[in-house]
């Protein structure tokens, strides 16, 4: 497969940061593709206890499944593959071409903007002009306060930018980076809010861009659906084995047979 139409946004990496960025980008109406190879690092966690919304914690494999489902439901596409190269094609009008290695061979993806959320690989950024910083065995990407790299159109988010090594920090960082990208793209955007009917309009205001007003029926229908979806996800214990550090077991994903 070779994609011909440039995507609005390519997200490299489908961990906490990449999937959160994808949800925000897709909800803002951007045609978004997430390319992920390998496993989000949080899947090595034994029980995730500090992510908001899960008072007794949550299985970390289940947590990333939930993030994938959320990105999907909000309209992002996902592709399994490794980005090995990123070519900068445009200057004033940013355009990028990513080379992606998949199980079926080599693929290319073009996009107007790229979010690098690929902890711990920045090698495909080496020839782009992005500032990379080596620290020990790791390489980090330098960004401004809002996730922009030195190259217009390339953004970075999550642990790859050397933020604190915590899931919710990666998620928040990615949300901020995604909103920055949305603003930079010229897409009309106020806030990504779902408000009750009348919240804006009963005060004589238009519903601002990227906001939505929903009435009581719609709210009940969405709540019903959310309960059904969560019931299904939590109906059984997660069936994938615990992970550990890949160097400790003879398995590149670090799966522990229990
Ligand atoms: C054992 C362990 C326990 C932890 N426990 C907690 C905890 O209890 N609470 C907490 O808040 N945090 C915890 N963390 C930290 C937390 O998991 C991370 O800080 C956070 O998940 C980082 O998210 P990320 O999206 O930046 O990176 P990642 O989740 O690593 O996502 C990057 C993704 O990009 C993929 N990728 C890399 N290169 C490429 C490429 N070239 N092309 C395509 N895909 C690529 C990777 O395979 C991966 O799927 C734990 C971490 C570990 C290791």
UniProtKB/TrEMBL annotation:
Residues 219-243 have a biased composition (Basic and acidic residues). One of its GO terms (molecular function) is oxidoreductase activity. Residues 8-40 form the FAD-dependent oxidoreductase 2 FAD-binding domain. The keyword tRNA processing does not apply. Keywords: Flavoprotein, Oxidoreductase. Residues 212-258 are annotated as: Disordered. It holds the Pfam family Pyr_redox_2. Residues 64-173 form the FAD/NAD(P)-binding domain. The keyword Lipoprotein does not apply. This is Thioredoxin reductase. It comes from Haloferax prahovense (strain DSM 18310 / JCM 13924 / TL6).
């Amino acid at each position: 497969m070779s994609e011909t139409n440039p995507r609005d946004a390519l997200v490299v990496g489908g961990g906490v940061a990449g999937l959160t960025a994808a949800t925000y980008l897709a909800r803002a109406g951007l045609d978004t593709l997430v390319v992920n190879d390998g496993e989000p690092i949080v899947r090595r966690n034994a029980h995730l206890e500090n992510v908001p919304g899960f008072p007794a914690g949550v299985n970390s494999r289940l947590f990333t499944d939930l993030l994938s489902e959320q990105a999907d439901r909000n309209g992002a596409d996902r592709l399994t593959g490794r980005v090995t190269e990123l070519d900068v094609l445009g200057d004033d009008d940013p355009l990028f071409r990513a080379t992606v290695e998949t199980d079926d061979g080599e693929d290319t993806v073009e996009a107007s903007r790229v979010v690098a959320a690929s902890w711990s690989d920045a090698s495909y950024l080496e020839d782009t002009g992005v500032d990379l910083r080596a620290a020990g065995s790791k390489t980090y990407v330098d960004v401004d306060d809002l996730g922009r790299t030195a190259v217009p159109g390339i953004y970075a988010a999550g642990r790859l930018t050397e933020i604190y090594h915590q899931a919710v920090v990666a998620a928040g960082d990615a949300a901020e980076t995604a909103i920055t990208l949305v603003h930079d793209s010229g897409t009309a955007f106020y806030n990504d809010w779902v408000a009750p009917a009348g919240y804006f309009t009963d005060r004589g205001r238009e519903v601002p861009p990227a906001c939505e007003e929903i009435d009581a029926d719609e709210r009940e229908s969405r709540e019903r659906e959310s309960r059904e979806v969560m019931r299904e996800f939590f109906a059984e214990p997660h069936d994938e084995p615990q992970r550990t550090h890949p160097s400790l077991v003879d398995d590149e994903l670090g799966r522990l047979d229990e």
